[in-house]
């Protein structure tokens, strides 16, 4: 697979069509706004972001990118949706933060800037590409030896189908119908194999859960649906 081929045009189009709503906390992107503080604290707790060079792979409209910039990191964001990046750039005028956005794939950027970043994040993105292992390899190439790479994605099992698709998309309407394809969900063991083969060492595996009664998200041991994996590139 060449550096530009690891994308699904339908997936890119799906998020491009919603791009204008990315920063509306009551929109389809509400879950991203609500989990962002959790993701930021989790990352910052393992490698303080202040002063770090950070790459956000699949940055979309820039919610996580801006959050990391606000914590003192020098952030670069990459995505394949031109509309999402347009929204991300416009929002910088409102926030006053600085993020360097590029329209490119992880594979292409890895060929241009290998081992350039202290931290690489790839959150809620692997389940939207045809070849997640290729993205993992690119992330490993982009981070400096000894640097950290953070992933988050969805587990593949009956519970995750029930909660992430039936519950989130059809019952609770947390996400638009068709947001996720269950066949593209990734088991933690599969992601751990991809990272190991890419030269990354697993540090922590953490679950993320949603309580429909309190309408809040939390981190914990339950990795059955959403989970986060932190890794370090071996020197």
Low-pLDDT segments, ≥5 res: none
Q: CATH-wise, what's the superfamily?
A: Vaccinia Virus protein VP39
Q: Give, in order, the helices and strands.
A: HHEHEHEHEHEHHEEE
What would you say the CATH architecture is? 3-Layer(aba) Sandwich
How many separate helices?
Answer: 8
Average pLDDT, to the nearest integer?
A: 90
Any idea of the CATH topology? Rossmann fold
Could you tell me the radius of gyration in angstroms? 16 Å
Helix content: 25-40%
Largest sheet: 8 strands, mixed
What report would you give on this structure?
The chain is α/β, with parallel strands linked by helices. The chain has one domain: Vaccinia Virus protein VP39 (Rossmann fold), CATH 3.40.50. An 8-stranded mixed β-sheet has the order 3-2-1-4-5-8-6-7. The protein has helices spanning 9-17, 30-46, 63-70, 82-95, 106-112, 132-142, 158-171, 188-197; strands spanning 53-57, 74-79, 99-103, 117-123, 143-154, 200-211, 216-220, 226-233. Strand 6 and strand 7 form a beta hairpin. The chain is globular, with a radius of gyration of 16 Å. It contains 8 helices and 8 strands. The mean pLDDT is 90. It starts with 8 loop residues before the first helix and ends with a strand. The longest helix has 17 residues, at 30-46. Belongs to the methyltransferase superfamily. UbiG/COQ3 family. It comes from Pseudothauera nasutitermitis. Keywords: Methyltransferase, S-adenosyl-L-methionine, Transferase, Ubiquinone biosynthesis. Its EC number is 2.1.1.222, 2.1.1.64.
